[in-house]
Design goal:
mainly beta; four-stranded antiparallel β-sheet
Length: 736
């Protein structure tokens, strides 16, 4: 027990709370730098403060050390910066589950070799809860890399974000039909704006910061009082989805853009339509108003941009050059330049006075959905479906850096008035705050460059194979977590992998409609199995290694002879795509899981359907069979897992606790525990006898897959960012 913890334990609850709230401030005011540094690097203090006061107050304690009067060495300052950065990056997780603190400090800081960091890393390891899932190596985005903070709360894609003129608040718009107002300094949700009856596609904040305007698929535009969160009025008139909205500098006028090929100019004070702008030949995706308020630029699916005179409603000129839909446009503060973003994967810089193209910015590998220009006009940030943001030098057209961290398509980006931070919005349901000056960028990660969709463990437990949307598979050493080799050959996402009982061969399933058999020792593809008419989602191998079963989007399963590569029979019965398949230990039966909300038990020797398991209320994503063959567990998009009696087809119990779709499930060799992976960013260990959750681990991204080693304690999991995680179940003997 540390001296701090010992002293704290002697205080009454009221005095303990007072000490935790005021001690750091007192030390800073009295210029006791050494004592402040010692306190802020003491895990007992960090845990106590987090538990008593919350994560934001803890984060703010580290800002006290930046006081110029608090004399700290460069090394001490860097230590505090890294610890604060780790806590801030995990803030959205710690707000929900404070028990994740030790694991997150370890996972974000363990790779830093600084002595003081290693001390707190060791303290974190010694303080871990029992039982828990503990990382075997650094498995989280490091402190000082990637985004500063993640904002969570939306339940669907986040489509847009705007920052208030004071820089202290931001408003996001989502497919969950809501807008949310955020405190950008604390990352807390201030309020939720409800009223739209469909996806909210855009939001803009008035220059006074007191009102905001949103645009929705419900054909309406709504004006909101940002201070009270109340709806002021609804603007109707569009006959199609409203994709974008911009507010003039005087705050009295707004322009909305619609899928109905038109833009509308509105009087925001009266809510009346001033005029309609026509000319585009397809849906209008974006609109920006020049600083003088006299001109506006629209971007359209018709591959063009148009410059408009807002006072007369006339079209001034058309900008031509993009080869696909133009999704966004931003205008520089001087009004002389505009930057557009397109589905052709490029951005273009335009001279607004002449309508000529100045240069093209190339670098994104997918559609570019948004662009924002810094207040000084010298840099711009783009957001793309390649899951990244890029910072550009607008004068030279060069790419300055790439911001990596989102695990879904990035839909929007806004830059704060001071130009130092930016906020992005993504299909991963989050917003992320970035430091644009340091461009805190992820180091090159050892692992996949896209989502990890499946993982399988060799019978000896010494190696694992992961399958990824980067079209590759990777073989890993499970003891060290190091990558041994990469298997290349598929031409589309690799969705599944199974390892034969001899450990020498593996079979992968891909969206390229094929399966491949691999020699795991050499990394070469032995043969390709063709026959499915659509994406192959899953594969399992019989215990004898001679037969494999695949599951496909074409609604069928196929039984294969692995030696010859021929399809022996096709199993039909599901009415939607088949997501997963597992084979019983005796090899005589298999269970499939489908988008049709059911599981089916099959006789593998005859290919006949034995029974159908019903109970899930949404797509069944995965299934695992216990070693005794009598029990199976399914994982579903309905956020639950279900335990089934395979002999009778009855549901034994439902496991609840995940807050989003459950992507995968694996059962320990002793059949007593199971692990589940979910899009709620967690892995959970379950006691199958009681149905209770034993331990949980929260990551930075959605977990897509998981597997358990023969020891029943070591877990391998893959996430949406491309990381392969190696964890160990601590404090549970015999896998329980």
């Amino acid at each position: 027990m540390s001296k701090f913890k010992e002293r704290l334990g002697k205080l009454s609850p009221k005095k303990r709370l007072y000490a935790l709230e005021t001690l750091p401030g007192h030390l800073a005011e009295s210029v006791q730098g050494e004592r402040l540094h010692q306190l802020l690097t003491e895990l007992d203090f960090i845990e106590a403060k987090l538990d008593a006061v919350g994560v934001q107050a803890l984060i703010e304690d580290y800002d006290l050390a930046k006081n110029s009067d608090v004399l700290l060495s460069e090394g001490q300052t860097e230590t505090l910066r890294l610890i604060q950065g780790a806590i801030r990056k995990s803030a959205h997780i710690l707000e929900k589950d404070k028990t994740q603190l030790a694991g997150h400090l370890w996972g974000r800081l363990v790779d830093f070799e600084m002595p003081e960091i290693q001390v707190i890393v060791e303290q974190a390891k010694q303080s871990r809860n029992s039982p828990c899932l503990w990382p075997l190596r650094a498995n989280l985005e490091r402190s000082g890399e990637g985004c500063l903070r993640t904002l969570t709360g939306h339940t669907h894609f986040v489509r847009a974000v705007a920052i208030a003129p004071d820089g202290k608040t931001a408003i996001s718009a989502s497919d969950d039909y809501t807008l949310k107002i955020w405190d950008t300094e604390t990352g807390t949700e201030v309020r939720t704006l409800t009223g739209h009856t469909s996806h909210v596609k855009a939001v803009a904040i008035a220059p006074d910061g007191k009102t905001a305007i949103s645009a929705s698929v419900d054909y309406t535009v709504k004006i909101w009082d940002t201070e009270t969160g109340t709806e002021v009025r609804t603007l109707t008139g569009h006959t199609d989805s409203v994709s974008a909205v911009a507010i003039a500098p005087d705050g009295k006028t707004a322009i909305s853009a619609s899928g109905g090929k038109t833009l509308k100019i509105w009087d925001t004070e009266t809510g009346t339509e001033v005029r309609t702008l026509t000319g585009h030949t397809s849906g209008v995706e974006a609109v920006a108003i020049a600083p003088d308020g006299k001109t506006a630029i629209s971007a359209s699916w018709d591959k063009t941009l148009k410059i408009w005179d807002t006072e007369t409603g006339t079209e001034v000129r058309t900008l031509i050059g993009h080869t696909a839909s133009v999704n966004a446009v931003a205008i520089t503060p001087d009004g002389k330049t505009a930057i557009s973003a397109s589905s052709d994967k490029t951005l273009k810089i335009w001279d607004t006075e002449t309508g000529t193209e100045v240069r093209t910015l190339i670098g994104h590998t997918a559609s570019v959905n948004a662009v924002a220009i810094a207040p000084d006009g010298k840099t711009a940030i783009s957001a793309s479906w390649d899951k990244t943001l890029k910072i550009w030098d607008t004068e030279t057209g060069t790419e300055l850096r790439t911001l990596i961290g989102h695990t879904g398509l990035v839909e929007a980006v806004a830059i704060a008035p001071d130009g130092k931070t930016a906020i992005s919005a993504s299909w991963d349901k989050t917003l992320k705050i970035w430091d644009t000056e340091t461009g805190t960028e992820l180091r090159t990660l050892i692992g996949h460059t896209d989502s990890v969709n499946a993982v399988a463990i060799a019978p000896d437990g010494k190696t694992a194979i992961s399958a990824s949307s980067d079209k590759t598979l990777k073989i890993w050493d499970t003891e060290t977590g190091t990558e041994l080799r990469t298997l290349i050959g598929h031409t589309h996402f690799v969705r599944a992998v199974a390892i034969a009982p001899d450990g020498k061969t593996a079979i992968s399933a891909s969206w390229d409609k094929t399966l491949k058999i691999w020699d795991t020792e050499t990394g070469t593809a032995v043969r390709t199995l063709t026959g499915h008419s659509s994406r192959v989602e899953a594969v399992a191998i019989k215990p004898d290694g001679k037969i494999a079963i695949s599951a496909s989007e074409d609604k069928t399963l196929k039984i294969w002879d692995t030696a010859s590569g021929t399809a022996l029979r096709t199993l039909t019965g599901h009415t939607e795509e088949v997501n997963a398949v597992a084979i019983a230990p005796d090899g005589k039966t298999a269970i499939s899981a489908s988008l049709d909300k059911t599981l089916k038990i099959w006789d593998t020797e005859t290919g006949t359907e034995v029974r159908t398991l019903t109970g899930h209320t949404n797509s069944v994503n995965a299934v695992a069979i216990a070693p005794d063959g009598k029990t199976a567990i399914s994982a579903s998009y309905d956020k639950t897992l279900k335990i089934w009696d395979t002999e009778t087809g009855t549901e034994v119990r439902t496991l609840t606790g995940h807050t989003d779709s459950v992507s995968a499930v694996a059962i320990a060799p002793d059949g007593k525990t199971a692990i589940s992976a979910s899009r709620d960013n967690t892995l959970k260990i379950w006691d199958l006898l009681s149905g209770k959750e034993i331990a949980s681990f929260s990551g930075d991204s959605s977990f897509n897959c998981c597997a358990i080693l023969p020891d029943g304690l070591t877990v391998v999991a893959g996430d949406e960012s491309g990381r392969v995680h190696f964890l160990r179940l601590e404090g549970v003997s015999g896998g329980r």
